[in-house]
Amino acid sequence: MPKSMIVSIRPEWLQMILNGEKEFEFRNWKVPVGTALYFYCTKGKLYLHHRPTENCTTHYVVWDKPSVFHTTLNGKVVAKAVVDEVYIIDRTQAVSYLRDFVPLDVQNHINKYDCAGGMDDKIIDDLDIIDLNKLGYTNQKYALKLKNIEPITPRKITSFTKANGEQLQHAPQSRVWVEENLE
């Protein structure tokens, strides 16, 4: 079986991964540790832009319209990471789930509800669960810890080959195994 997979991901999640703000990818499926994940930036209402900064570092931003000044990355495979660890999410342990896997900015939002010094399930139930759903964490079964996250030269989906040797014609709905030799 190939050890590489293309994963479709929304621009706002990919922005967080590329900017180092999100080190877990949450999915209803798991893959073996060591699997290379190639991220396909989906098309939609938001646009992921590559924006070099003044000190020559790279920064990724999401806007609600395309830019004529920065590279728009939607509709292309634009990043790669390796699955370092796979965690099963135990939704019966809501407090642990939020503290272990949710990024720090979301934890800070949650902590403002933690006035008593210890979060419990009642506080979790009182949170606006719609906000957490927007973050993409609440209905997933697995947390894939990512390492070696790096942008790649943007590539069209048709430049990849499925595990069965067929050329990809369209983006995967969720994921697709691809041949190891992608470069």
Number of β-strand runs = 9
The secondary-structure class comes to alpha+beta
Largest sheet: 6 strands, mixed
Uncertain segments: 112-135
What is the approximate shape? globular
Overall pLDDT, averaged? 76
DSSP strand content: 25-35%
Fraction in helix: 10-25%
Which fold name corresponds to the CATH topology of the largest domain? Archaeosine Trna-guanine Transglycosylase, Chain: A, domain 4
**Can you identify the CATH class of the largest domain?**
Mainly Beta
- What's the SSE pattern? EHEEEEEEHHHHEE
How many individual domains? 2
Examine the secondary-structure arrangement and name the CATH architecture of the largest domain. Roll
Counting DSSP H or I runs of 4 or more residues, the number of helices is 5
Oligomeric state of the chains present here? single chain
Polypeptide structure, described:
This protein has 183 residues and is of the alpha+beta class. It folds into two domains: 4-89 and 140-178, Archaeosine Trna-guanine Transglycosylase, Chain: A, domain 4; 91-136, no CATH class. Helix content is 20%, strand content 33%. It contains five helices and nine strands. It has helices spanning 11-18, 94-101, 104-111, 121-126, 129-134, and strands at 4-9, 24-27, 36-41, 47-52, 58-63, 71-72, 76-88, 142-155, 175-178. It has a six-stranded mixed beta sheet. Strands 5-4-6 form a three-stranded antiparallel beta sheet, with helices on one face. Strand 4 (47-52) and strand 5 (58-63) form a beta hairpin. The longest helix has 8 residues, at 11-18. The radius of gyration is 18 Å and the shape is globular. It starts with a strand and ends in a 5-residue tail after the last strand.
